[in-house]
Write a structure and sequence with these properties.
two-stranded antiparallel ribbon; alpha+beta; six-stranded mixed beta sheet; Beta-lactamase; 13 helices
Amino acid sequence: MDYNKFNSSVNEDTHTANNKSNSGLIIFLRISVVLVILAIIGLAAVVFVNIMNRKKLQDQVALEEASLEEMSELPTEEPVTEAETVTDAEAEENSDTEKINSKIPKDSWMYDKVLHSFHKTDKTISLPSADLEVFKQPAEESGEKTKAEDAVAQGPWDKVSLALDSVEGSINLSTPGEASKTEQLTSTYMVLVDLDTDEIVAERDCDLVVSPASMTKVLTVLTAREFISVNSLDDKFTITAEITDYVDRNDASAVGFRPGDEVTVRDLLYGTILPSGADAALGLAEYCCGSQEAFVEKMNQKVDELGLAETAHFTNVVGMYDKDLHCTMKDMAVILSMAVQDDLLRDVLSRRVYNTDIKYGVDENGEPLKKEDESEDEGSEEGAEEASEEVEEPYFPDGIEISNWFIRRIEDKEMDGKVVCAKTGYVSESGCCACSYYEAFNGKRYICVTGNSFSSWRTIYDHLSIYRSYTD
Protein backbone atom coordinates (compact mmCIF):
# COMPACT_ATOMS: atom_id res chain seq x y z
CA MET A 1 0.00 0.00 0.00
CA ASP A 2 1.36 3.37 -0.99
CA TYR A 3 1.72 5.43 2.21
CA ASN A 4 1.53 8.81 0.47
CA LYS A 5 -1.73 7.95 -1.20
CA PHE A 6 -3.11 6.82 2.10
CA ASN A 7 -2.20 10.11 3.77
CA SER A 8 -3.67 12.07 0.92
CA SER A 9 -6.90 10.13 1.19
CA VAL A 10 -7.08 10.70 4.93
CA ASN A 11 -6.47 14.42 4.50
CA GLU A 12 -9.25 14.67 1.92
CA ASP A 13 -11.68 12.88 4.22
CA THR A 14 -10.71 15.12 7.10
CA HIS A 15 -11.16 18.26 5.00
CA THR A 16 -14.54 17.05 3.81
CA ALA A 17 -15.62 16.35 7.38
CA ASN A 18 -14.45 19.79 8.46
CA ASN A 19 -16.40 21.43 5.66
CA LYS A 20 -19.53 19.54 6.64
CA SER A 21 -19.00 20.50 10.27
CA ASN A 22 -18.58 24.19 9.40
CA SER A 23 -21.68 24.15 7.20
CA GLY A 24 -23.76 22.66 10.03
CA LEU A 25 -22.46 25.28 12.43
CA ILE A 26 -23.46 28.09 10.10
CA ILE A 27 -26.95 26.66 9.71
CA PHE A 28 -27.23 26.31 13.46
CA LEU A 29 -26.13 29.88 13.98
CA ARG A 30 -28.59 31.18 11.43
CA ILE A 31 -31.44 29.26 13.02
CA SER A 32 -30.39 30.56 16.41
CA VAL A 33 -30.41 34.18 15.16
CA VAL A 34 -33.89 33.73 13.71
CA LEU A 35 -35.12 32.22 16.95
CA VAL A 36 -33.60 35.09 18.94
CA ILE A 37 -35.25 37.64 16.67
CA LEU A 38 -38.59 35.87 17.00
CA ALA A 39 -38.15 35.76 20.76
CA ILE A 40 -37.40 39.48 20.86
CA ILE A 41 -40.46 40.23 18.74
CA GLY A 42 -42.59 38.04 20.98
CA LEU A 43 -41.23 39.69 24.09
CA ALA A 44 -41.87 43.14 22.61
CA ALA A 45 -45.42 42.13 21.78
CA VAL A 46 -45.97 40.89 25.32
CA VAL A 47 -44.54 44.12 26.74
CA PHE A 48 -46.73 46.22 24.42
CA VAL A 49 -49.87 44.28 25.36
CA ASN A 50 -49.04 44.65 29.04
CA ILE A 51 -48.53 48.40 28.64
CA MET A 52 -51.85 48.81 26.84
CA ASN A 53 -53.67 46.73 29.43
CA ARG A 54 -52.12 48.75 32.22
CA LYS A 55 -53.11 52.04 30.53
CA LYS A 56 -56.65 50.77 30.03
CA LEU A 57 -56.80 49.76 33.67
CA GLN A 58 -55.52 53.18 34.74
CA ASP A 59 -58.16 54.91 32.59
CA GLN A 60 -60.90 52.80 34.13
CA VAL A 61 -59.65 53.58 37.63
CA ALA A 62 -59.47 57.31 36.84
CA LEU A 63 -63.00 57.23 35.41
CA GLU A 64 -64.32 55.46 38.48
CA GLU A 65 -62.56 57.95 40.77
CA ALA A 66 -64.04 60.88 38.81
CA SER A 67 -67.50 59.36 39.04
CA LEU A 68 -67.11 58.87 42.78
CA GLU A 69 -65.91 62.45 43.15
CA GLU A 70 -68.91 63.79 41.23
CA MET A 71 -71.24 61.70 43.34
CA SER A 72 -69.62 62.99 46.52
CA GLU A 73 -70.29 66.58 45.39
CA LEU A 74 -74.01 65.98 44.98
CA PRO A 75 -76.17 67.39 47.79
CA THR A 76 -77.08 64.92 50.47
CA GLU A 77 -80.46 63.45 49.78
CA GLU A 78 -82.99 64.67 52.32
CA PRO A 79 -86.53 63.51 52.96
CA VAL A 80 -88.86 65.11 50.43
CA THR A 81 -91.63 67.08 52.08
CA GLU A 82 -95.03 67.61 50.56
CA ALA A 83 -94.16 71.21 49.65
CA GLU A 84 -91.00 70.07 47.83
CA THR A 85 -92.70 67.40 45.75
CA VAL A 86 -92.54 68.24 42.05
CA THR A 87 -96.03 68.21 40.62
CA ASP A 88 -96.93 67.09 37.11
CA ALA A 89 -97.69 70.73 36.24
CA GLU A 90 -94.24 71.86 37.41
CA ALA A 91 -92.56 69.04 35.52
CA GLU A 92 -94.48 70.04 32.40
CA GLU A 93 -93.46 73.68 32.93
CA ASN A 94 -89.78 72.67 33.22
CA SER A 95 -90.13 70.62 30.05
CA ASP A 96 -91.70 73.59 28.27
CA THR A 97 -88.83 75.82 29.42
CA GLU A 98 -86.30 73.42 27.89
CA LYS A 99 -88.26 73.47 24.63
CA ILE A 100 -88.35 77.26 24.68
CA ASN A 101 -84.58 77.48 25.18
CA SER A 102 -84.00 75.22 22.20
CA LYS A 103 -85.81 77.67 19.92
CA ILE A 104 -83.12 80.36 20.19
CA PRO A 105 -80.63 79.92 17.31
CA LYS A 106 -77.01 79.40 18.29
CA ASP A 107 -75.95 82.40 16.20
CA SER A 108 -78.36 84.73 18.03
CA TRP A 109 -77.04 87.23 20.57
CA MET A 110 -79.69 85.83 22.95
CA TYR A 111 -78.34 82.27 22.85
CA ASP A 112 -76.07 82.51 25.90
CA LYS A 113 -78.43 84.77 27.87
CA VAL A 114 -80.82 83.75 30.64
CA LEU A 115 -84.34 83.13 29.35
CA HIS A 116 -86.64 83.86 32.26
CA SER A 117 -89.94 82.05 32.80
CA PHE A 118 -91.84 83.90 35.50
CA HIS A 119 -94.34 81.99 37.63
CA LYS A 120 -96.63 82.54 40.58
CA THR A 121 -96.00 80.96 43.97
CA ASP A 122 -97.98 80.68 47.17
CA LYS A 123 -96.22 83.90 48.21
CA THR A 124 -97.36 85.90 45.17
CA ILE A 125 -99.50 88.90 46.10
CA SER A 126 -102.45 89.06 43.71
CA LEU A 127 -104.19 92.41 43.80
CA PRO A 128 -107.90 92.53 42.94
CA SER A 129 -109.01 93.74 39.52
CA ALA A 130 -109.64 97.47 39.32
CA ASP A 131 -111.71 99.95 37.34
CA LEU A 132 -109.75 102.88 35.93
CA GLU A 133 -112.71 105.22 36.49
CA VAL A 134 -112.45 104.63 40.26
CA PHE A 135 -109.11 106.43 40.20
CA LYS A 136 -109.70 108.84 37.34
CA GLN A 137 -112.85 110.66 38.47
CA PRO A 138 -111.55 111.96 41.85
CA ALA A 139 -108.34 113.08 40.18
CA GLU A 140 -110.28 115.09 37.61
CA GLU A 141 -112.28 116.72 40.39
CA SER A 142 -109.05 117.72 42.12
CA GLY A 143 -107.72 119.28 38.92
CA GLU A 144 -105.01 116.71 38.34
CA LYS A 145 -104.03 116.06 34.73
CA THR A 146 -105.28 112.80 33.30
CA LYS A 147 -103.94 112.87 29.75
CA ALA A 148 -100.80 111.35 28.33
CA GLU A 149 -99.58 114.82 27.40
CA ASP A 150 -98.82 115.47 31.06
CA ALA A 151 -95.61 113.61 30.41
CA VAL A 152 -94.16 116.76 28.93
CA ALA A 153 -95.46 119.03 31.67
CA GLN A 154 -92.96 121.55 32.98
CA GLY A 155 -92.06 122.07 36.60
CA PRO A 156 -90.58 120.02 39.39
CA TRP A 157 -91.92 116.63 40.41
CA ASP A 158 -93.33 117.78 43.74
CA LYS A 159 -95.70 120.26 42.06
CA VAL A 160 -97.75 117.40 40.67
CA SER A 161 -100.95 116.96 42.68
CA LEU A 162 -101.25 114.06 45.09
CA ALA A 163 -104.79 114.93 46.17
CA LEU A 164 -106.07 111.37 46.42
CA ASP A 165 -105.72 110.88 50.17
CA SER A 166 -109.43 110.37 50.80
CA VAL A 167 -110.04 108.19 47.79
CA GLU A 168 -109.97 104.44 47.42
CA GLY A 169 -106.99 104.01 45.19
CA SER A 170 -104.67 106.37 47.00
CA ILE A 171 -101.09 105.26 47.49
CA ASN A 172 -98.64 105.96 50.25
CA LEU A 173 -95.74 107.99 48.86
CA SER A 174 -94.29 109.46 52.02
CA THR A 175 -91.04 107.63 52.68
CA PRO A 176 -89.74 104.19 51.68
CA GLY A 177 -90.12 102.95 55.23
CA GLU A 178 -93.71 104.14 55.49
CA ALA A 179 -94.87 102.92 52.09
CA SER A 180 -97.53 100.34 52.84
CA LYS A 181 -98.35 97.26 50.82
CA THR A 182 -101.46 98.78 49.37
CA GLU A 183 -103.82 97.16 46.90
CA GLN A 184 -104.85 100.53 45.51
CA LEU A 185 -102.67 101.33 42.50
CA THR A 186 -103.93 103.42 39.61
CA SER A 187 -102.63 100.97 37.00
CA THR A 188 -105.26 98.31 36.42
CA TYR A 189 -102.65 95.82 35.14
CA MET A 190 -99.38 95.14 36.90
CA VAL A 191 -96.64 92.60 37.49
CA LEU A 192 -93.48 92.68 39.61
CA VAL A 193 -91.00 89.86 39.03
CA ASP A 194 -87.85 88.78 40.85
CA LEU A 195 -85.07 88.14 38.32
CA ASP A 196 -83.07 86.05 40.78
CA THR A 197 -85.84 83.52 41.45
CA ASP A 198 -88.17 84.00 38.44
CA GLU A 199 -91.00 84.37 40.94
CA ILE A 200 -93.88 86.79 40.48
CA VAL A 201 -93.76 88.91 43.63
CA ALA A 202 -96.99 90.83 43.02
CA GLU A 203 -99.47 91.08 40.18
CA ARG A 204 -102.81 92.43 39.04
CA ASP A 205 -104.33 90.68 36.02
CA CYS A 206 -100.82 90.14 34.65
CA ASP A 207 -101.99 87.36 32.30
CA LEU A 208 -104.64 89.43 30.53
CA VAL A 209 -103.88 90.20 26.88
CA VAL A 210 -103.69 93.98 26.39
CA SER A 211 -102.16 96.58 24.09
CA PRO A 212 -98.56 97.38 25.12
CA ALA A 213 -98.49 100.70 23.22
CA SER A 214 -94.93 102.06 22.89
CA MET A 215 -93.50 99.44 25.22
CA THR A 216 -93.49 97.58 21.90
CA LYS A 217 -90.30 99.46 21.07
CA VAL A 218 -88.36 97.37 23.61
CA LEU A 219 -89.01 94.40 21.33
CA THR A 220 -88.15 96.59 18.33
CA VAL A 221 -84.62 97.31 19.54
CA LEU A 222 -84.24 93.75 20.85
CA THR A 223 -85.00 92.42 17.36
CA ALA A 224 -82.79 95.01 15.67
CA ARG A 225 -79.87 93.87 17.80
CA GLU A 226 -79.64 90.75 15.62
CA PHE A 227 -78.69 92.99 12.68
CA ILE A 228 -76.56 95.56 14.50
CA SER A 229 -73.11 95.30 16.01
CA VAL A 230 -71.08 97.89 17.88
CA ASN A 231 -69.09 98.36 14.67
CA SER A 232 -72.19 99.26 12.64
CA LEU A 233 -73.47 102.04 14.91
CA ASP A 234 -71.93 104.68 12.65
CA ASP A 235 -73.64 103.33 9.53
CA LYS A 236 -75.93 105.87 7.88
CA PHE A 237 -79.61 105.60 6.99
CA THR A 238 -81.56 108.16 4.97
CA ILE A 239 -84.92 109.17 6.40
CA THR A 240 -87.65 108.92 3.77
CA ALA A 241 -90.80 110.96 3.22
CA GLU A 242 -92.83 107.79 3.80
CA ILE A 243 -91.46 107.62 7.34
CA THR A 244 -92.25 111.22 8.22
CA ASP A 245 -95.68 110.93 6.56
CA TYR A 246 -96.45 107.91 8.76
CA VAL A 247 -95.47 109.90 11.84
CA ASP A 248 -97.62 112.88 10.84
CA ARG A 249 -100.58 110.76 9.78
CA ASN A 250 -100.66 108.89 13.10
CA ASP A 251 -99.68 111.88 15.24
CA ALA A 252 -96.92 109.72 16.68
CA SER A 253 -94.09 110.83 18.92
CA ALA A 254 -90.84 111.43 17.04
CA VAL A 255 -87.22 112.49 17.33
CA GLY A 256 -87.79 115.15 14.69
CA PHE A 257 -85.90 113.75 11.72
CA ARG A 258 -86.74 115.18 8.29
CA PRO A 259 -86.90 113.56 4.84
CA GLY A 260 -83.41 113.30 3.41
CA ASP A 261 -81.65 113.36 6.78
CA GLU A 262 -78.72 110.96 6.94
CA VAL A 263 -78.77 109.65 10.49
CA THR A 264 -76.58 107.06 12.18
CA VAL A 265 -77.82 103.68 13.35
CA ARG A 266 -76.87 104.87 16.82
CA ASP A 267 -79.36 107.75 16.45
CA LEU A 268 -82.04 105.27 15.39
CA LEU A 269 -81.49 103.05 18.44
CA TYR A 270 -81.49 105.80 21.04
CA GLY A 271 -84.19 107.71 19.17
CA THR A 272 -86.49 104.69 19.28
CA ILE A 273 -86.35 104.45 23.09
CA LEU A 274 -85.64 107.83 24.71
CA PRO A 275 -88.30 110.01 23.04
CA SER A 276 -90.21 106.95 21.81
CA GLY A 277 -89.55 108.13 18.27
CA ALA A 278 -91.69 106.50 15.61
CA ASP A 279 -89.43 107.99 12.92
CA ALA A 280 -86.41 106.28 14.50
CA ALA A 281 -88.23 102.95 14.95
CA LEU A 282 -89.38 102.88 11.33
CA GLY A 283 -85.89 103.82 10.16
CA LEU A 284 -84.44 101.03 12.27
CA ALA A 285 -86.83 98.50 10.74
CA GLU A 286 -86.00 99.57 7.18
CA TYR A 287 -82.26 99.61 7.88
CA CYS A 288 -82.38 96.05 9.23
CA CYS A 289 -84.88 94.35 6.92
CA GLY A 290 -85.78 96.76 4.12
CA SER A 291 -89.37 97.28 5.25
CA GLN A 292 -91.50 97.43 8.37
CA GLU A 293 -93.45 94.35 7.25
CA ALA A 294 -90.31 92.20 6.94
CA PHE A 295 -89.04 93.46 10.27
CA VAL A 296 -92.33 92.67 12.03
CA GLU A 297 -91.93 89.06 10.91
CA LYS A 298 -88.60 89.01 12.72
CA MET A 299 -90.24 90.53 15.80
CA ASN A 300 -92.78 87.73 15.96
CA GLN A 301 -89.99 85.22 15.40
CA LYS A 302 -88.33 86.65 18.52
CA VAL A 303 -91.66 86.34 20.37
CA ASP A 304 -91.70 82.65 19.51
CA GLU A 305 -88.07 82.17 20.57
CA LEU A 306 -88.90 83.77 23.92
CA GLY A 307 -91.81 81.35 24.39
CA LEU A 308 -94.50 84.03 24.25
CA ALA A 309 -96.30 83.17 21.01
CA GLU A 310 -99.50 82.00 22.71
CA THR A 311 -100.31 85.47 24.07
CA ALA A 312 -98.04 87.95 22.28
CA HIS A 313 -98.20 89.15 18.69
CA PHE A 314 -97.05 92.35 16.99
CA THR A 315 -98.11 94.09 13.78
CA ASN A 316 -95.98 97.24 13.76
CA VAL A 317 -92.70 98.48 15.24
CA VAL A 318 -94.14 101.60 16.86
CA GLY A 319 -96.88 100.24 19.11
CA MET A 320 -99.73 101.98 17.30
CA TYR A 321 -103.01 100.40 18.36
CA ASP A 322 -104.09 97.35 16.41
CA LYS A 323 -106.44 94.65 17.68
CA ASP A 324 -103.85 92.10 16.57
CA LEU A 325 -101.00 93.79 18.44
CA HIS A 326 -101.04 92.54 22.00
CA CYS A 327 -99.22 90.85 24.89
CA THR A 328 -99.54 90.41 28.66
CA MET A 329 -97.74 92.29 31.41
CA LYS A 330 -95.78 89.10 32.07
CA ASP A 331 -94.80 88.84 28.40
CA MET A 332 -93.37 92.35 28.47
CA ALA A 333 -91.42 91.49 31.63
CA VAL A 334 -89.79 88.58 29.75
CA ILE A 335 -88.93 90.84 26.79
CA LEU A 336 -87.35 93.51 28.99
CA SER A 337 -85.51 90.90 31.08
CA MET A 338 -83.79 89.68 27.92
CA ALA A 339 -82.99 93.17 26.61
CA VAL A 340 -81.24 94.37 29.79
CA GLN A 341 -78.75 91.49 29.54
CA ASP A 342 -77.16 93.01 26.44
CA ASP A 343 -74.65 95.81 27.08
CA LEU A 344 -75.71 97.91 24.09
CA LEU A 345 -79.45 97.61 24.70
CA ARG A 346 -78.97 98.17 28.41
CA ASP A 347 -77.18 101.44 27.66
CA VAL A 348 -79.96 102.51 25.29
CA LEU A 349 -82.68 101.72 27.83
CA SER A 350 -80.82 103.36 30.71
CA ARG A 351 -79.53 106.49 28.96
CA ARG A 352 -80.88 109.61 30.63
CA VAL A 353 -80.02 112.14 27.90
CA TYR A 354 -78.64 111.69 24.39
CA ASN A 355 -77.65 114.12 21.63
CA THR A 356 -78.07 112.89 18.07
CA ASP A 357 -75.06 112.55 15.81
CA ILE A 358 -76.89 114.51 13.13
CA LYS A 359 -76.68 118.27 13.68
CA TYR A 360 -78.79 121.05 12.19
CA GLY A 361 -77.92 124.62 11.20
CA VAL A 362 -74.16 124.10 11.13
CA ASP A 363 -71.63 122.93 8.59
CA GLU A 364 -69.15 120.07 8.91
CA ASN A 365 -66.88 122.28 11.01
CA GLY A 366 -69.67 123.23 13.39
CA GLU A 367 -69.96 126.74 12.02
CA PRO A 368 -73.46 128.27 11.58
CA LEU A 369 -74.77 127.96 8.05
CA LYS A 370 -75.11 131.25 6.20
CA LYS A 371 -78.55 132.00 4.84
CA GLU A 372 -78.89 132.71 1.15
CA ASP A 373 -78.87 136.38 0.17
CA GLU A 374 -82.48 137.41 -0.33
CA SER A 375 -81.83 141.18 -0.69
CA GLU A 376 -83.05 141.28 -4.28
CA ASP A 377 -86.48 140.11 -3.15
CA GLU A 378 -86.54 142.49 -0.22
CA GLY A 379 -89.44 144.95 -0.33
CA SER A 380 -91.28 143.20 -3.14
CA GLU A 381 -94.67 141.61 -2.64
CA GLU A 382 -93.41 138.38 -4.16
CA GLY A 383 -90.43 138.30 -1.80
CA ALA A 384 -92.64 138.93 1.21
CA GLU A 385 -95.00 136.14 0.20
CA GLU A 386 -92.12 133.68 -0.25
CA ALA A 387 -90.68 134.68 3.11
CA SER A 388 -93.99 134.04 4.83
CA GLU A 389 -94.20 130.56 3.32
CA GLU A 390 -90.60 129.70 4.14
CA VAL A 391 -90.22 126.98 6.74
CA GLU A 392 -87.80 127.91 9.48
CA GLU A 393 -84.73 125.71 9.45
CA PRO A 394 -84.03 123.88 12.72
CA TYR A 395 -80.95 124.88 14.64
CA PHE A 396 -79.39 122.12 16.73
CA PRO A 397 -75.63 122.68 16.57
CA ASP A 398 -75.03 119.94 19.16
CA GLY A 399 -77.62 117.57 17.73
CA ILE A 400 -81.19 117.06 18.89
CA GLU A 401 -81.26 116.48 22.64
CA ILE A 402 -83.57 113.65 23.61
CA SER A 403 -84.15 112.13 27.03
CA ASN A 404 -85.80 109.27 28.89
CA TRP A 405 -88.69 111.03 30.61
CA PHE A 406 -89.40 108.19 33.06
CA ILE A 407 -85.83 107.90 34.33
CA ARG A 408 -85.42 111.66 34.69
CA ARG A 409 -88.60 111.88 36.77
CA ILE A 410 -87.94 108.96 39.09
CA GLU A 411 -84.17 109.14 39.58
CA ASP A 412 -84.27 111.50 42.58
CA LYS A 413 -86.99 109.68 44.51
CA GLU A 414 -86.13 107.85 47.71
CA MET A 415 -85.99 104.10 47.22
CA ASP A 416 -83.85 101.25 48.49
CA GLY A 417 -82.38 100.92 45.02
CA LYS A 418 -82.32 102.49 41.57
CA VAL A 419 -84.45 102.29 38.45
CA VAL A 420 -81.83 101.53 35.80
CA CYS A 421 -83.85 101.04 32.59
CA ALA A 422 -87.35 102.10 31.55
CA LYS A 423 -89.73 102.53 28.62
CA THR A 424 -93.14 104.19 28.68
CA GLY A 425 -96.13 103.94 26.36
CA TYR A 426 -99.55 105.38 25.67
CA VAL A 427 -102.46 104.83 23.35
CA SER A 428 -106.03 105.56 24.37
CA GLU A 429 -106.90 101.85 24.25
CA SER A 430 -104.14 100.91 26.73
CA GLY A 431 -103.92 103.98 28.91
CA CYS A 432 -100.53 105.00 30.25
CA CYS A 433 -98.11 102.14 30.75
CA ALA A 434 -94.45 101.52 31.49
CA CYS A 435 -91.88 98.82 32.09
CA SER A 436 -88.80 99.33 34.26
CA TYR A 437 -85.78 97.43 35.54
CA TYR A 438 -84.77 98.01 39.16
CA GLU A 439 -81.62 97.12 41.09
CA ALA A 440 -81.94 97.14 44.88
CA PHE A 441 -78.98 98.20 47.00
CA ASN A 442 -78.83 94.66 48.43
CA GLY A 443 -78.14 93.24 44.96
CA LYS A 444 -81.65 91.98 44.18
CA ARG A 445 -83.04 92.68 40.71
CA TYR A 446 -86.64 93.25 39.68
CA ILE A 447 -88.76 94.18 36.69
CA CYS A 448 -92.07 96.00 36.99
CA VAL A 449 -94.62 96.39 34.19
CA THR A 450 -97.81 98.42 34.57
CA GLY A 451 -100.66 99.29 32.22
CA ASN A 452 -103.85 101.30 31.91
CA SER A 453 -103.19 104.17 34.27
CA PHE A 454 -104.96 107.47 33.62
CA SER A 455 -101.77 109.55 33.84
CA SER A 456 -98.11 109.33 32.91
CA TRP A 457 -97.23 110.83 36.26
CA ARG A 458 -99.41 108.28 38.04
CA THR A 459 -97.61 105.51 36.17
CA ILE A 460 -94.34 106.67 37.67
CA TYR A 461 -95.89 106.89 41.12
CA ASP A 462 -97.18 103.34 40.74
CA HIS A 463 -93.69 102.03 39.95
CA LEU A 464 -92.29 104.02 42.85
CA SER A 465 -94.88 102.63 45.24
CA ILE A 466 -94.47 99.06 43.99
CA TYR A 467 -90.70 99.09 44.40
CA ARG A 468 -90.99 100.64 47.84
CA SER A 469 -93.65 98.21 49.01
CA TYR A 470 -92.81 94.85 47.50
CA THR A 471 -89.02 94.68 47.13
CA ASP A 472 -86.49 93.70 49.79
